[in-house]
Specification:
- The chain is mainly alpha-helical and about 120 residues long.
- The protein has four helices and two strands; from the N terminus they run ααββαα.
- Strands 1-2 form a two-stranded antiparallel sheet.
- The longest helix is centred in the first third of the chain and has 23 residues.
- About 0% of the residues are buried.
Length: about 120
């Protein structure tokens, strides 16, 4: 169990700046890494967990972060988030173009690791 720190902006202009957004993302990723890193040491062999009833063999498996829809939307800046210009969780279509039924396949960019890295950088 741990807490994730929250970076607060002093002004609206600071909150909207690219540097603030990058710092907020870096802080979140670093904090999450600090919480999860100890578990990753045991992903190959597992570990024995001592309990009141003896020992249990445990194997850490991290698959997803759990949360409700508004919390996940705020975390990923998708699906009607106030700060999101690309609200779809599957593609990078701008919010004002989501209702356009005449979009061609080459206009739809899927959210993959490569496209998201290129989009964020």
């Amino acid at each position: 169990m741990g807490y994730l720190p929250i970076l607060k902006a002093k002004t609206i202009s600071q909150k909207r700046s690219k540097g603030y957004k990058l710092a907020k993302r870096a802080l979140y990723q670093h904090a999450l890494d600090m919480l999860i890193r100890p578990l990753l040491d045991y992903t190959n062999d597992g570990f024995d967990l001592k309990t009141d009833n003896g020992e249990l063999w445990c194997y850490p498996f991290i698959s997803v972060m759990l949360g409700d829809l508004p919390e996940n939307a705020a975390l990923t800046l998708t699906f009607n988030s106030a700060n999101c210009s690309h609200p779809c969780h599957a593609c990078l279509i701008e919010g004002n173009k989501l209702n356009n039924a005449e979009l061609s396949d080459d206009q739809i960019v899927l959210r993959t690791t490569g496209t998201m890295k290129a989009f964020v950088d």
